[in-house]
Amino acid sequence: MKRTLFIIKLIFILLILALAIFPVILSSHSWPVVSRDYLYENALSDTGAVNTVSSIYLGYRAMDTLGETLVLLVSITGTMGILINLGRENEEEEAVSFSLAPEKRATNAQRTHLLEVVASKLGPVVLLFGFYVMLYGHISPGGGFQGGVIVASAIVFLALGTETQTKLTNTNVLGRIESLSFLVLIIAATSGVFFESGFFGNPIKSGSSLSANFIILLNIIIGLKVGTSIAVMCIAMMGGRRGH
Amino acid sequence: MTILLLFLILALGSFALLSRDLLHSVIALSALSMLSALMFTILKAPDVAITEAAVGAGISTIIFVWAIRHTRRRSKD
Fold first, then answer.
1. I need a surface site. Which of A76, A165, A240, B18 has the fewest CB within 10 A?
2. How many CB atoms lie within 10 A of CB A10?
3. Hey, are the CB atoms on B66 and A149 less than 8 Å from each other?
């Protein structure tokens, strides 16, 4: 404990020293403007996006976005594997409430009136806001990933707050949506190859009024993928794995 | 305003590190990500702010609370 405190103190001292020194170092260099000017000139016509941020993360750096979704897919797969195996081990000893069926669970273990009242009313509003962020990601701040995470928390709210099981909180349906949207993402990524714009290129000729639609499509697909996969993981963690 | 937010974030982070109850730490982390989302908005990065608010305050808090609920404490204090 003493040793940890000493290390924490040392790190704090280093941070404060860095805070004092960094402005002195940074002020002698001028701010780099080359890439900013290049993006200001060419970004919209290169990728067919409507604003510069989405032109970067779905145009120039689209491979990054694909990598992010792959990382998410792998981590969700690992989590689900661990959860399924743990549930199998715990089937004999029922005292550990890991992934118990709802009727075996102790009453009010996860459901209080407060949670029900707040979460079930908040869920639909958050869901609507998530789809708004997802669909308007090409002209306003936001985008597929952000909207997808908001949709995921809305689905978790709905799963926590309502007694009735709907298709929206069914892990089978959500898992299918996830894998389908990943397939469509790969197809949409390769579609640029056949229109002379390369992997993840915009297949619609830039300059026409339709070219932003590719960005909207990618936003929707990435949002569905991210949202459903995180929702599947959270619902499986809370013990609602069995479909209804 | 930014300096005030930074000091609040620092205080919340230290509280999350040093607190003995893990649930208190998680709530402090959630408040920390709300404050940093506010700071991203002030620094004109609204999409980073949306991500921070959704991931930090929403999903990760749920996952942390679930993990604390399903693990057992070893030390007695």
1. B18
2. 10
3. no
Distances in Å between the Cα of A63 and the Cα atoms of A8, A60, B62 are 38, 8, 30
Q: Is B17 on the interface with A (CB under 8 A)?
A: yes
Partner residue facing B54 (CB), from A98, A149, A234: A149
Q: Which two tokens stand for residue B28?
A: 């402090």
A3-35 tens-digit pLDDT: 889 999 999 999 999 888 887 887 777 878 888
pLDDT at A102 over 60: no
In this complex, the residue of A8, A153, A237 whose CB is nearest that of residue B58 is A153
Name beta bridge partners: B25. Answer: none
Tell me whether 0.90 is exceeded by the ipTM. no
User: Residue A164 is inside which H or E element, if any?
Assistant: none
CA B42 to chain centre: 18
Mean pLDDT of chain A: 80
10 Å Cβ neighbour count for B48?
17
Averaged pLDDT for residues A51-76: 86
| C-alpha pair distances (Å), A141 with each of A197, B53, B54 | 26, 13, 14
Among candidates B49, B59, B70 on the partner chain, residue whose Cβ is nearest the Cβ of A149:
B59
